[in-house]
Amino acid sequence: MTLPTINRDIGLGLLTVLLLAVVALFFPAFVTPRGLAEVIDDTGILILLALGQMLVLLTRSVDLSVAANLALTGMLVALLNASYPGVGVLPVLLLAPVIGAGLGAFNGVLVWRLGIPSIVVTLGTLSIYRGLVFVVSGGAWVNSNQMSPAFLDTVRMPMLGLSVLSWMAIAGVVLASLFLSRTTAGRNLYAAGDNPSAAAYAGIDVGRSQFLAFTLSGAIAGLCGYLWISRFAVAYTDVAQGFELQVIAACVIGGVSIAGGVGTVAGVVLGALFLGIIKNALPLMGVSPFWQMAISGLVITIAVILNARSDRAPPRRILEEAAA
Predict the structure, then answer these.
(1) Each residue of 255-296: pLDDT tens digit?
(2) For residue 19, how many other CB atoms are within 10 A of its CB?
């Protein structure tokens, strides 16, 4: 991790604390342990999806289909639970990431083997996965009364002051940190995105790294499909519509470069929390939903501009100037 990256994470952390302080001036209950626990619970799915998206962005790719993956996997596990409520939650927790990984691997194969730009591939699969949600559900909803209590209650179960969903997000943060810092495959993602040609000369298969990133991102999206349906207690065709933009925004705000090779887990978590605080605070301030969208968009735009400016590295000096 470079010094500018550390400084950017510290700056974003201070900005997040400042935002919390401003909100606390008007709504002190927002910064109580219970209020902060609700913010983490509300942001848990965004944190997990942003971590998966970060892996893809590191390799100079982007996954626009994560929300569609979430919706399709969520609908499939909801239909499974409605048809076989006695199977319990464990098969769902195992099956959801597998389905999501398969959908993500499909993206990865197209990018890796066919060399199609990731934005084109995932824009196409976004439509395919959304369409399949209609196909498998027939356009019908799966409501809470059709789901088993275990399916619905597991993610809300409190543990040491936080929900299971929050603990799963924390576990995701720890695992992502270990993967990127302690494994060869994780470090290869940085190398593949920072300089693909140099990575290839070093023996790193850039395409295979992209495939791995898409597969892991898909697995996380699949798991989040169950978490989303369970948390909101309903599955329908438009679940998480447009949520992929928030996921990418959390990464960009957190300092992940869309040009690849740059990004930290801490930055992504802070970016997601920053968006989560805004999302939870604006309704308390009585801001209309239309202005909430405009303000969120303005914040994201400013973050993108700042991120783009910080990515402009000074020109590298090849030859020292001749002494006068």
Answers:
(1) 898 888 999 999 999 999 988 888 888 887 777 777 877 877
(2) 16
